[in-house]
# Entry
Amino acid sequence: MGEFVSKVEAAVDDFATILAKDGMSGAEVYSRNCEQAARQSNDILDTDYCIAFDMAAMATDLGFAQSTGMPQNIHFKMRAQILDSDYARFAEVSSNRTEIIWTQVNTVLDTSIQAAANRSGY
# Structure
């Protein structure tokens, strides 16, 4: 479980860093590249990383959209609907894997965003 948690936390930290530097458009580009790379990998932890990155983006984007009345980022809105399908190619996967990732993402997201903002001077 330690490697799994480390992957999820790394993804959230990477999202926060990219958000602070390049905004949601940078996060979207990174997400697309991550998803493509994960499809080429046989390591489920690579998929977990990309899912966690996307979840961090989804949560942040949804919060922003709700507080400002702006529309959600369409890429992350669509990703939210199909996350579980990323695991279809893995024979043994827990039915609640994405739920476990959501829990871990939510545990570290605010701290990661604040740390990234502090590093970038905001």
In short: Helices lie at 2-40, 44-68, 74-82, 97-120. The chain has a mean pLDDT of 93. The chain is about 80% helix and 0% strand. The CA atoms of residues 9 and 19 lie 15 Å apart.
